[in-house]
Amino acid sequence: MAWIYLIVAGLFETVWATTLKMSHGFQKLDYSIYTIIGMGLSFWLLAKAIKTLPLGIAYPIWTGIGALGTIILGVTLFGDRLSSLTWVFVGLLLISIIGIKITVH
Question: What are residue 50's phi and psi, to 5 degrees?
Answer without folding.
Answer: -80, 0
